[in-house]
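Continuing the series of single-chain predictions for the mutant panel. This is the parent chain; the variants come on the following pages.
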Amino acid sequence: MKRSKTLTLGLAAFFSLVQAAQAGPPLICHALDIGDAKSLPWNNSTSLSGRSDYELSRLVADTLELLQPNTPVIVRMETIRRATLYAQKDQQIAKELLLKLRRRAVDAEAKGRPDALAWFDLGYLVECYKQANLAYKKLDSGGWEPVIRPNPANGLDGYAWVERAISLHGQEPEMEFAAALISLDGKRPGHQEHVEKAVAGAPADSLLAKNLATHFKGDPGQTVGAMLGQVATAKK
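Parent structure:
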């Protein structure tokens, strides 16, 4: 009986993850609602390439300028998503942005003033880079295996840095939301807790609440919040 229950829950989690996967990597393919907040220039929420007239040489400076201490976490997430998509056009710029964010986090740490937002930005960028470079390799069995194409974030654990940011910052529902999106693949045991804290800490009419109520791109059924919650529930 126990084995049957485990199998049932495992299948429920699997199908929830499949639904999310069909909508594309969530950190990349799902644009976040940031209201009228300032971010990198973009065409529209469905675009994955940005504006053709954007000067790519400005990307690193523009991104760092936007990631100010008073920038809300949801806005940081969308800015980093856009920066990742622009950076896909030039791997040298992608590497430079990663190194700049890493240096900012490491320098603050070395001075004895750990910066939660700096670690968050670095960790979220790493995970965005990974998802932007996600591909699938066909196996001899006929199935498919996810693989990460070579990119500047190879070998780095952005999720661990996001968790460090949460531990440094204290209660921060938007960071929990970010961690829940990153852990949607079902490979990290903290997913359920991240979902619960994000949902519980989302004030009505906040950017977080609005984003939890939106739908994954290409999936008109469940909202983002429901999808995250379903994966968490299935894993209990």
